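in:
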């Protein structure tokens, strides 16, 4: 039986990887199921307490924001139709896990390049650069991030010990103009993210002093 025509289209969250210089999209990692919770920690960048009392209300830069979420990857449905999903039948969820894990590693080519630089006596080894990652959680939240940590709990395995279900915990740092510099492609995306916050804040219903019991505040 087909679903109701009025059923809402389910939107997935995920990561979009793009080249920092050209903006070309190299990979899209869609989370199989939308996480039920999303944790965000936002910390102000301000003058240190006691450092300068005359500057207590001044901010030194954009807030530091961390996004954490839990997700599930499951190949059970795909294994019901191995002819349609040969990779799932042969490898389980290894490819999906690898797509996320490789965000935390330099590529093998970058490591080989560093090895060659060291062998040539290079004074400074060029640090490896990862693709620019965008965390997408609906059209209202598209923000440049760096995946800082990934915890994987593999729960079920097929007869060949390929994992077929896993729980993931991701922690991502939002990359601001302080991290990237104003000329970086990701900074424009961060500014759009910040401007969207400001526009939403302007729509918030304003309170009153009477509602706070502070009608005489001066």
């Amino acid at each position: 039986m087909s679903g109701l025509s009025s059923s809402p289209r389910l939107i997935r969250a995920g990561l979009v990887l793009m080249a920092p210089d050209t903006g070309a999209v190299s990979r899209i990692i869609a989370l199989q199921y939308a996480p039920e919770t999303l944790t965000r920690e936002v910390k102000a960048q301000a003058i240190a307490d006691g450092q300068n009392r005359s500057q207590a209300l001044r901010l030194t830069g954009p807030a530091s924001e961390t996004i954490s979420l839990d997700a599930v990857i499951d190949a059970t449905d795909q294994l019901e139709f191995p002819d349609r999903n040969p990779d799932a039948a042969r490898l389980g969820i290894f490819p999906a896990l690898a797509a996320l894990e490789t965000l935390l590693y330099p590529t093998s080519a970058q490591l080989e390049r560093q090895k060659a630089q060291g062998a040539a006596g290079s004074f400074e080894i060029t640090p490896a650069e990862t693709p620019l990652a965008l965390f997408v959680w609906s059209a209202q939240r598209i923000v440049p991030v760096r995946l800082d940590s990934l915890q994987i709990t593999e729960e079920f395995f097929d007869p060949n010990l390929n994992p077929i279900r896993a729980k993931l915990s991701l922690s991502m740092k939002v990359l601001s103009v302080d991290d990237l510099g104003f000329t970086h492609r990701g900074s424009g995306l961060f500014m759009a993210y910040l401007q969207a916050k400001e526009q939403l804040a302007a729509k918030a219903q304003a309170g009153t002093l009477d509602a706070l019991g502070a009608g005489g505040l001066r």
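note: DSSP finds six helices and seven strands in the chain.
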